[in-house]
Amino acid sequence: MAGVTIYDVAHQAGVSIASVSRVLNSPESVNHATRARVLTAIDALGYMPKAEAVARARKSTQRIGVLAPFFTYPSFVQRLRGVAATLSTAAYELVIYNVDSSAHRDAYLASLPLTRRLDGIIVMALPFAESVAERLMQRLAVNEMDVVLIEWSHAMFSSIVIDDAAGGRLAAEHLLTLGRRRLGFVGDSDLPDYAIHTSDRRLAGFREALTQAGQELPADYVALGPHGLETSYRQAQRLFDLPSPPDAIFAASDTQALGALKAARDRGLRVPHDVAVIGFDDLDLADYIGLTTVRQPLEQSGRIAAELLLARLDDPTRPNQKITLPLTLVKRETA
Description:
Elements: H1 6-13, H2 17-25, H3 32-45, H4 51-57, E1 63-68, H5 74-89, E2 93-98, H6 102-115, E3 120-124, H7 130-143, E4 146-150, E5 158-161, H8 164-177, E6 183-188, H9 198-212, E7 222-225, H10 229-240, E8 248-251, H11 254-266, E9 276-281, H12 284-289, E10 292-295, H13 298-314, E11 322-324, E12 328-330
Parallel strand pairs: 1-2, 1-3, 3-4, 4-5, 5-11, 6-7, 6-8, 8-9, 9-10
Antiparallel strand pairs: 10-12
Helix pairs in contact: 1-2, 1-3, 3-6, 5-13, 6-7, 8-9, 10-11
């Protein structure tokens, strides 16, 4: 709507101009209810920053934003390393936005394209609703930005994904080939609604391969808990307490595999003679500890995401792409 100002948005939302400004510039500092009212008013009025601000904004900022949950996890650090390496050679600055709730995610996706302090956004492992995608596309079309997704796909955007279920199948097939028959799983539970549930997908593929081989995965052999070393250590200990403990464990991440390895060591179990352990990710540390794992190309996924984003910024007519990166089983000493 032509002529709509920040004053109109504030009036429509029933908030102060300062509140609207905070929603646009630092949405994490505004409570969810106020943020929702302001964004609803912006959508209803079709508000965009005044023409001269847009004109200034359209000049390249040489900054790319990355939205990510759990950004301290080693897997995210390796992905970010790929993003950073690509952006540094192209003279772009990397700005990281930590997301710890669905409201936080949606606020960033609504406000960042409006403020136009970025040339583009990489959204890492954060699914979002169709309504959010549509609003995002409207803002991007006006402000000449672009978005690339990692670990989740949407037809409106380029994306880089893996087949988590296929990774679970790789782990099961390898353990069965080794002659293991009492297989356990250590994975995640109680994941927040704003995150990708990769552990569930990896478990589904693991279970599917066992079923196809005529094996079952009893409920007692599935140990789930919040992601982390200490939790996975306790979950593995619970599996080892079973009357017939598993002779192999597939962990949904290398971090959780480390917890299982320590639990085995503390029990005096020999790895892989008494119990084999497989992880997922192939973190840098996996090679140093001899961990057998399902490798996903973490750094490569970050690099490709940044390359796709820069290519779209250079040529907005370039079609969106969905790239599925291959998974491989890396055999080392633990299985």
